[in-house]
# Entry
Amino acid sequence: MSPRTEKQFEEIREERRSQIMEVALELFAQQGFSNVTIAKIAKKAEISKGLMYNYFESKEQLITEIMIMGLNEFNEIFDPNKDGELTHDELHYFIDESFRILQSRVKFWRLYFLIMFQPEVYTLIEKKIYEVLGMYLKLTMALFERKGLKDPESEVRFFGAMMDGIALNYVLDPEHFPFEIIKKRMHDLYQ
Amino acid sequence: MSPRTEKQFEEIREERRSQIMEVALELFAQQGFSNVTIAKIAKKAEISKGLMYNYFESKEQLITEIMIMGLNEFNEIFDPNKDGELTHDELHYFIDESFRILQSRVKFWRLYFLIMFQPEVYTLIEKKIYEVLGMYLKLTMALFERKGLKDPESEVRFFGAMMDGIALNYVLDPEHFPFEIIKKRMHDLYQ
Amino acid sequence: MSPRTEKQFEEIREERRSQIMEVALELFAQQGFSNVTIAKIAKKAEISKGLMYNYFESKEQLITEIMIMGLNEFNEIFDPNKDGELTHDELHYFIDESFRILQSRVKFWRLYFLIMFQPEVYTLIEKKIYEVLGMYLKLTMALFERKGLKDPESEVRFFGAMMDGIALNYVLDPEHFPFEIIKKRMHDLYQ
Amino acid sequence: MSPRTEKQFEEIREERRSQIMEVALELFAQQGFSNVTIAKIAKKAEISKGLMYNYFESKEQLITEIMIMGLNEFNEIFDPNKDGELTHDELHYFIDESFRILQSRVKFWRLYFLIMFQPEVYTLIEKKIYEVLGMYLKLTMALFERKGLKDPESEVRFFGAMMDGIALNYVLDPEHFPFEIIKKRMHDLYQ
DNA sequence: AATGAATGAGAATTCATTCAT
DNA sequence: GATGAATGAATTCTCATTCAT
# Structure
């Protein structure tokens, strides 16, 4: 029989990678990073332990990839036309979409926040995070300046702090968090 | 020489416990809970591994005590007369004191936050945190109700989220955080 | 196009086998037998892992073949007419040719020696080596007896030991080894 | 009860280290470096696997220590008064003692040679070996010069090559090697 | 109270080999 | 012939905790 084509191999690989990441994500969310062993992931994904290493160099690399995937989701909604300028409407779009993203996969984002603060993991994506946050701050400050706010730098810090705090509180206790109301509060603050 | 009194022994014991906790806090924050071995802590605290277990039943109990110690500092400034009612002045006192506490030992609180979000650790103190936060929410909501705010529950969640976000952003980058301005912002919001 | 003849296939096959053996030799020598994986060999030989097993039954068989190939080169120059008797001239021919063989591919022989002394490898070809060496000893001893040497058995051992030591020292540091002088020394000892 | 004194701990450690090295040596000799697992060593030494790592950082470090121990044995008999000059008598003392050392623990030296040529191991002690050999060559050449030999450099290379070859042949097949006779041969060559 | 040797269960990782395609 | 995904047993190494002294 003829061997599989390169494309077929590629498809198998992509398929398996997603499958592993999905399973790993769920386990990490339920049990915490260091309580999840490769063996557990492999078992749940119904593959052998060895195969894990065909797709991810290590447990750390696996979590790193998951983390970066998450960062990218926010990148897509900030300054969505990527013209390097944040408009008033884009700010409100960002607020809306941020809330939507969080809400769509609370469990994921809960894990995401929890993991992000683990030194081992944080170190791995620190650089990427600084890059992204720096860009957010810069563009948002430019907007606040154009809006004529008195102290745009402090204002942007305050905005960032609030968004962080809200995200954190929401994902840690989504049942009781008055999501819609607080979203409106945020919109109102920057009308 | 007269033998040490029981009280002196007790003091030495307490001294050692604090010393161990301090060392452990720093290591946990730098390297992550599960990457810090008992051996590392013992070495840095200049005692033997075995002796560690004379002071703390287990690694888990050690981290739990550290985390609870931190929680207690905030407990002391919330409703300081412990009469089960939060007044307007007590709210502003809490805001002030919270900021003061953070500022007084930024390094400690940065470590504290970094540790708290490690899933293994968070799990251990989750219950205690819910208890404490629940109490904060309840008393603050009662105040907001008395003040006649429209949606006191949401308002209190928003307040909590902001305080968290601010604390987080401050300790992670104290140099650039517009501390005083944002403190004033918070006071103003609840005049 | 006419299909390839069986002979052509055979040639291609042999070609590939040599190529794999060459690559494997270098890797084994550089990194040690057990640190070289089939995957590494396959990658360097630019074929797939699976195909390796089409040419060699196992990793062990691969190394065994390489080692035997080397042994055979010396077999060809010892008692070249294969009449089971070593003459005076044939001894000197062997000395000359041994030196020539070593010199012609110093790099190969350095690798060869390095590999041969790896216990895992040595074990595999131990038997074969005994066979070959036994034959060398026997024929050389017969010559020394005919020459009337006093203690031919010891003499032949001494001869073998010197040849080994020289080969080893030469291939490990060919730049500084006084090749010609020592070759002459050997000839002179057995005039 | 009072804890063990530092000296007691030191004794336990030394005792155990020797015990492990001895057992490891024997196993390595019988089965070859990479066929001996930590588990095997631990079992034979009647300790737990974990304890191995209390005494040796890794399997590699264990073998390295054994190797260096061996090198040191030869260092002690070469230029024994360590005055930086090799006399005629010291050369013959070295020949005698080298043979005695090899003979005293053939099994050890067999292993020693076999292991020394493993790239992983060789790398670890390469530097040390160069140092030692360089010193041997230098002092021996000085002696040959004083003796008035024509080409002392080649002569010393020849001497080294013979010693190597003899050692190798002897340890690989001690039963059949005409030890005494060849020792005498060596002495005679340098009268 | 104090020490650090000792345990043992379990973790991540490796790799020769097989096999469906 | 040819590919590389898949397996699983084996291996090294880690570490919280116990314990004799």
In short: Chain B has a mean pLDDT of 91. The radius of gyration of chain B is 19 Å.
